[in-house]
Specification:
The protein is mainly beta. The protein has one helix spanning 7-11; strands at residues 15-23, 29-33, 40-43, 47-56, 77-82, 87-92, 110-116, 119-128. It has one helix and eight strands; from the N terminus they run αββββββββ. The chain is globular.
Amino acid sequence: MIQACDPSDYRDPRNKCEWYVTNLTKDSLLIKTTFSSYESVILVQDTTILIDNTAFPKHDNGIFFQGIYNFNTIDDSVVVCNIKGDELIVWKESQRNDPGKQFFNEKYWQKREWEDGRYTYHEWTFELLAEDL
């Protein structure tokens, strides 16, 4: 028996995913990424920015957080710098299971999930703390 997918779910995916970064340090920071359309952004203290977003069909349940990797073959990274551009920390996707706080490890993110009509929203927030840098 052959079963077809609902093509409308690919044109209008039911799972909307967003990743945010909050700067809880006392300084403004420069955030550089290899995966986001915002390749470089200044994040002032006590603010939150959207760093990436995507959508998935309803049948892709369980892999939503991995959408931040963009499923690229390169080793995605996040570099946090001071406002002068000096590197403070580099997180790489390939090191997501290393000891310590890791940007690409879901357990270090706060997650919210809710439904609204036919959509399910998945939102993750990563908090940058002074001790992370």
